[in-house]
């Protein structure tokens, strides 16, 4: 049964988890915007989601479940305007990325809710 629900929800449950992890990373960047020597990090959500989708296709074929280890996808962000203290976190950039990720999180949550309500309708008849 779990495999059927997992297959019905598709990549949306993983996208939501990845959005939460990205929020944590961006919040860390925002918290350290004034920390000398702090190197801001982020990951390419699209590339990470494509990797998880490929792993998910393999999982339904009998391979292990997809890995959501964000640390393997983390990259250092190149600043638009380097600071003298070596900090690469830029307040405006981090705020914009955090806000965009929050909107994308809401979108992922909406898709997941739509999938669940569709499953509920199918079960109820």
UniProtKB/TrEMBL annotation:
Keyword Transferase attached: no
Chain segments annotated as transmembrane: none
Keywords: Bacterial flagellum, Cell projection, Cilium, Flagellum
Xref: PROSITE patterns: FLAGELLA_BB_ROD
Primary gene name: flgB
Main location class: other
Chain's role: Structural component of flagellum, the bacterial motility apparatus. Part of the rod structure of flagellar basal body.
Assembly with partners or alone: The basal body constitutes a major portion of the flagellar organelle and consists of a number of rings mounted on a central rod.
Protein name, UniProt field: Flagellar basal body rod protein FlgB
Superkingdom in the source lineage: Bacteria
Protein family membership: Belongs to the flagella basal body rod proteins family.
Organism: Marinobacter xestospongiae
Pfam families from the UniProt entry: Flg_bb_rod
Compartments reported by the entry: Bacterial flagellum basal body
UniProt domain Flagellar basal body rod protein N-terminal: residue ranges: 11-38
């Amino acid at each position: 049964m779990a495999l059927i629900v997992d297959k019905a929800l598709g990549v949306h449950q993983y996208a939501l988890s990845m959005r939460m992890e990205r929020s944590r990373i961006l919040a860390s960047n925002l918290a350290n915007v004034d920390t000398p020597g702090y190197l801001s990090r982020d990951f390419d959500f699209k590339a990470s989601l494509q990797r998880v989708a490929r792993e998910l296709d393999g999982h339904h074929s009998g391979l292990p479940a997809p890995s959501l280890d964000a640390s393997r996808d983390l990259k250092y962000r190149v600043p638009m305007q380097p600071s003298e203290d070596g900090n690469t976190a830029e307040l405006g950039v981090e705020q914009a990325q955090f806000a965009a990720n929050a909107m994308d999180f809401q979108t992922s949550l909406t898709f997941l809710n739509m999938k669940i309500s569709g499953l509920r309708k199918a079960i109820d008849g």
